[in-house]
Design goal:
The protein is mostly helical. It has helices spanning 14-17, 21-37, 45-71, 79-90, 97-109, 124-128, 142-145, 147-150, 153-161, 166-179, 185-209, 230-235, 242-247, 263-273.
Length: 288
Amino acid sequence: MRASLVSPRDPLPPRQRKFKTGTTGFMLAMHVGAVFALLPRFWSWQAVVVLAVLYWTTVLGVTLGLHRLVTHRSFSAPQWLERLLVLMGALACQSGPIEWVGLHRHHHKYSDQPNDHHDAGRGLWWAHSAWMLHEIPALQHVQRLTGDLQRDPFYRWLDRWFLLLQLPLAAGLYWYGNAAQVQGGGLGLVLWAIPLRLVVVYHVTWLVNSATHFCGYRNFDCPDRSRNCWWVAILSFGEGWHNNHHAFPHSARHGLRWFEFDITWQHIKLLRALGWAKRMRVASYRPS
């Protein structure tokens, strides 16, 4: 099932049509770096392993940490675990945790309405990534929507300095790549671990904002375009069951039917078995 691509929308105001130089330049640099990473001279099995491990770390940090734990409080966890998961999510370079959580909470309040910052009614490309290259009026509401995080000095610090997390990661991999004489050297590992990983994670995350508002099926009649898309769910560790999530935002489990496999939910169940995930809120599917 596929939704229509656009809805009637007023044109963007003039101030919002301008590209943000910093964000646009950073995204361009990461995509160029990702292309260089794929040159044959930088390929190695070590680079593939580094990419796979960091992909798991980063995506799980976003889905389990920033999204289900911190944004929606679908379960509780010890402070050390919550901060570790948020650090993992901050490696995605999708802004700091306070801004990420605030914008996502704003999205749920106004999903697919004109004031939704990645309003799918403006089209697939806008919902996917174009929205972030322009002024984001929703940022004015972040402080109001994140009072629980604003009180924590750790989150305030990470919100400002999250980009610095890439530096020790790059330094360690550069040293190892040269010391172990990996094909492509330390530079090859850094290119696979940072620009290539970030670009892959970016587009997987953005697909949840774009593809799952345009294609797939609906279990629930939500007042937005949200849909369940199986292939996005695989790539994003369960976030592609998006219609389920919009129907029950505070559910720790997104895949509600027997065939809706939710990798993040499997990790949460493991944390529960270890005694580290408690007070879980879980929705269930009841066909009408």
